[in-house]
Amino acid sequence: MQPSLVLGCEQPITGYHETNFSMAYSSHISWQSADSPVPMEVYPSLAFDSLFENRGNKRTQSILDRVKDDASSLSRKISSEDNRKLDEYLTAVRDLERRIEMSGKIVALAPEDSRPVGAPQSYREHVKLMFDVMTLAFRTDTSRVATFVMAHDGANKPYTEIGVREGHHDLSHHENKAEKKDKIARINRMHMELFAAWLKQLTATPDRDGSLLDNSMIVYGSGIADGNAHQHHDLPVILAGRGGGAFSTGRHVRYAKDTPMANLFLSMLDRMGVPAERFGDSTGRLGQLTA
After folding, report:
1. Any idea what the Cα angle at residue 112 is, between residues 52 and 3, rounded to 5°?
2. Distance in angstroms (rounded) separating the CA atoms of residues 132 and 169
3. d(CA 1, CA 126)
4. What is the pLDDT of residues 188-233, one digit of tens each?
5. Which of 98-105's residues contact partners 24+ apart within 8 Å by CB, and which partners?
6. Terminal-residue alpha carbon distance, the chain
7. Between the CA of residue 128 and those of 18, 146, 198, what are the distances in Å?
8. What is the crossing angle of helices 123-140 and 44-51, to 10°?
9. Looking at the predicted structure, is the pLDDT value of residue 26 above 50?
10. Could you read off the pLDDT of 45-55 as tens digits, one per residue?
11. pTM for the whole thing?
């Protein structure tokens, strides 16, 4: 079992910001210490391989080829209903494996590797594959914790798929110009649509007495509320999933001004059974998470 998955869609930025802070702080959200980020995986194929320890010569065959005999043996011992679930699971694994193989653009490989490793040219497909990898990890209990940076703070890629040719970061300094704000809104909408599609996928995936979403805690948000003003407070945050019944969803809760984001994380640590008096700059637990 992996302690966590740390995923992204683009390589971290190096160097220092004009404020003398390392750009690592704007590129990573998973850290092993105060000054050491966890390396981020940006290639869907390598993220997929990490779930099944698929390294070296093992890349030459499908994951399912390696477990074919075990799957056949198990199939003979379980009920028809469990066989249906097993078939659904194996089909999902192979479908994701094929999509990753088809989407990756070939890049240089180490001699011992034989399967193409790369990132899809389509940003939308890249995000979908990473969401699928996380779904598979949760579904197989290969990992219970994941972080995913869809676009880091310094990202300046264009979104030509939705007709936005200017850089994302440049547009975030919109100067209150309507045209720039409209394009930022289109990028935000695209991100939200991809996230919403993932939540629907989790809702449609059975897990114990509910869905995978019912038994998850998914935080979606941004480190900046207004890029033009570099406003780091009053952040728009979504907490999706019921955490196994710990949270009440379907509501908009407004907290007091300057409530630390870390208060939410401290509350989530409680639900995960991790004892902690404080987390970051937390000042306490969040109320109103449970109805």
Report:
1. 30
2. 27
3. 24
4. 999 999 999 999 999 999 998 899 999 999 999 988 888 888 888 8
5. 99/129, 99/132, 100/44, 100/45, 100/48, 100/129, 101/45, 103/44, 103/129, 104/43, 104/44, 104/45
6. 33
7. 34, 15, 8
8. 10
9. yes
10. 889 988 887 65
11. 0.86
- Within 141-261, residue ranges assigned H as helices are 168-172, 178-203
Residue with tokens 């209150």: 176
Token digits for 233?
Answer: 């407070």
Burial status of residue 49 (CB atoms within 10 A of its CB: 0-12, 13-18, 19 or more):
buried
Three-state DSSP at 190 gives helix
Q: Is 22 helix (H, G, I), strand (E, B) or coil?
A: strand
DSSP 233-248: SS---EEES-TTTT--
What is the residue whose two structure tokens read 């679930």? 85
Buried b (16+ CB within 10 A) or exposed e, 227-237: bbeeeeeeeee
* Whether the predicted pLDDT of 150 surpasses 90: yes
Token output for 190? 């695209």
Q: How far apart are CA 52 and CA 279, in angstroms?
A: 32
Q: Please report the sign of the dihedral spanned by the C-alpha atoms of residue 138, residue 142, residue 146, residue 148.
A: negative
In degrees and rounded to multiples of 5, residue 33 shows phi and psi of -160, 180
Query: What distances in angstroms separate CA 133 from CA 50, 52, 160, one per listed residue?
Result: 10, 11, 25
Question: Side chain identity at 135, as an amino acid letter?
Answer: T
User: What's the chain's length in residues?
Assistant: 291
Residue type, 36: S
Place of tokens 């996230």: 195
